[in-house]
Write a structure and sequence with these properties.
The complex is a heterodimer of chains A (113) and B (113). Chain A has 113 residues and is mainly beta. Chain A contains no helices and 11 strands. The N and C termini of chain B lie far apart (30 Å). The chains are: A mainly beta (113), B mainly beta (113).
């Protein structure tokens, strides 16, 4: 059974700080991994998708890395802004045809002005 | 707006009543997924369709739950004889095979009182 763990559960940082969110997974035969953002009461917005053959992906101030050997992924946010405040979820794709996602519980980020 | 529409956005119902949620995916997306998310947890996979065929159901989907996707377009998720434990946000997502990013709707909140 795939399991995804995110640490910490909550994080509070001052505006402008760089930060790292952590995600670990148990299935070493990982297919793809994706990071999402969720605002309170809202759906999920895709941030970055890392395919199993890749080591990292970048979009603007966001950089996500994937280390299959250690079962870890990190999401790096540079120069954080109050608008980055949200819950960040990482999810692992199953490769068995359904491509269903197994999610972590998320990290709730608060960026203090 | 991701292009995936869900209706209603909020539903309050009395225990024992039936409820139905609708999802309109992005047109041309042949895959449609339903997930359930409770407070403080990540979304959990319920079921998915490829075109009109329901190909997999999670063990979380009890006999009181039924999902359909007639004609391979919109989908409905019905919950019969609702219980308080059904209170959650029900998320729909669509994806076209060959395109990597999955798109989630805003979710339908269910409160069973």
């Amino acid at each position: 059974k795939q399991e995804v763990t995110q640490i910490p559960a909550a994080l509070s940082v001052p505006e402008g700080e760089n930060l790292v969110l952590n995600c670990s997974f148990t299935d070493s035969a990982i297919y793809n991994l994706q990071w999402f953002r969720q605002d309170p009461g809202k759906g999920l917005t895709s941030l970055l998708l890392i395919q199993s053959s890749q080591r990292e992906q970048t979009s603007g101030r966001l950089n996500a890395s994937l280390d299959k050997s250690s079962g870890r992924s990190t999401l790096y946010i540079a120069a954080s802004q109050p608008g980055d405040s949200a819950t960040y979820l990482c999810a692992q794709y199953s490769g068995a045809g359904s491509y269903q996602l197994t999610f972590g519980k998320g990290t709730k980020l608060s960026v203090i002005p | 707006d991701t292009g995936v529409s869900q209706d209603p956005r909020h539903k309050i119902t009395k225990r024992g009543q039936n409820v139905t949620f609708r999802c309109d995916p992005i047109s041309e997306h042949n895959r449609l997924y339903w997930y359930r998310q409770t407070l403080g947890q990540g979304p959990e996979f319920l079921t998915y369709f490829q075109n009109e065929a329901q190909l997999e159901k999670s063990r979380l989907l009890s006999d009181r739950f039924s999902a359909e996707r007639p004609k391979g377009s919109f989908s409905t998720l019905e919950i019969q004889r609702t219980e308080q434990g059904d209170s959650a946000m029900y998320l729909c997502a669509s994806w076209r095979i060959g395109i990597d990013t999955i798109y989630f709707g805003e979710g339908s909140w269910l409160t069973v009182v």
